[in-house]
Automatic annotation (TrEMBL):
Keywords per UniProt: Disulfide bond, Glycoprotein, Kringle, Repeat, Secreted, Signal
Chief location: secreted
GO BP annotations, alphabetical order: proteolysis
Keyword Glycoprotein (UniProt): yes
UniProt GO cellular component terms: extracellular region; membrane
Coiled coil regions, renumbered to chain: none
Described function: Plays a role in neuronal plasticity and the proteolytic action may subserve structural reorganizations associated with learning and memory operations.
Name the UniProt record assigns to this protein: Neurotrypsin
Domain of life of the native organism: Eukaryota
Subcellular location(s) per record: Secreted
MF term (GO), any: serine-type endopeptidase activity
From-to range in the entire protein, with total length: 573 to 820 of 820
Length: 248
């Protein structure tokens, strides 16, 4: 996250991280992810481009804040299943969504706690609050200097479809959302290492009781470049697919 700030410990309890398991790269950050049920995290399909989709390559960490400090509710889980969206193609950014099933063995999934809780899904075709609503991106990705050791958060504005079409032309599709800093402040963006992670907004009228994952950090032209907003997979366009895969 560029232009963010330290989050509070336990402040984004659905934030998960997909990390490399075993081998010399053990623990290396692959991508962010969002816990949406006790068994499934939502992430980006492109996260599996580099190391492939062999479940044994990965683990999922939940309840983390400082990557080098064991937190009270931090746990790591094995990956049982990786489901890429069937229309995702590695040469394009469209349909950039994947579901990862985590397991603790013996039919158990993630233990929920004060610091480990799923985010809400949007309703089918629900729109994210426009403009400077209460929306945030979070992650351990590049801050412009290095990857962050502490979970970063940044408030972000939902931009119009037109603003992204102007910049990205045909690459910007109906399965994507566009978000960035407001016009007066261009210092907020997601970056390498944040992808797969959440763009959440407080659901208007819920009084802070429900946070909805409207977007999954997907791509953009560089990070924090003027007129190059970040692009997020539009979760509300995939509700039937998510329900089908997770069986909810
Ligand atoms: C990346 O490389 C990446 N500013 C993620 C987000 C954005 C750009 C690049 C959007 O994972």
């Amino acid at each position: 996250i560029i232009g963010g700030e330290n989050s509070l410990r336990g402040g984004w309890p659905w934030q998960a991280a997909i990390r490399i398991r075993g081998s010399q790269a053990d623990g290396r950050l692959v991508c962010g992810a969002t816990l949406i049920t006790s068994c499934w995290v939502l992430t980006a399909a492109h996260c599996f481009k580099r190391y492939g989709n062999n479940t044994k390559m990965y683990k999922v960490r939940v309840g983390d804040y400082h990557t080098l400090v064991p937190e009270e509710f931090e746990e790591e889980y094995a990956v049982e299943e990786i489901v890429l969206h069937g229309l995702y193609r590695s040469h394009s950014n469209d349909y950039d969504l994947a579901l990862v099933r985590v397991s603790a063995g013996k039919g158990q999934c993630v233990t929920l706690s004060r610091s480990v809780l799923p985010a809400c899904l949007p309703f089918r075709r629900e729109r994210a609050p426009k403009g400077t609503g209460n929306c945030y991106i979070t992650g351990w990705g590049d801050t412009g200097r290095a990857y962050s050791k502490t979970l970063q958060q940044a408030s972000i504005s939902m931009l119009s479809k037109r603003q992204c079409e102007r910049r990205y032309a045909d690459q910007f599709t109906g399965r994507m959302l566009c978000a960035g800093a407001a016009f007066d402040d261009r210092r907020v963006d997601s970056c390498r290492g944040d992808s797969g992670g959440p763009l959440v907004c407080e659901r208007p009228g819920s009084g802070g009781d429900s946070w909805v994952v409207y977007g999954v950090t997907s791509w953009g032209h560089a990070c924090r470049l003027q007129d190059s907003p970040g692009v997020y997979t539009k979760v509300s366009a995939f509700i039937p697919w998510i329900k089908k895969v997770t069986g909810q």
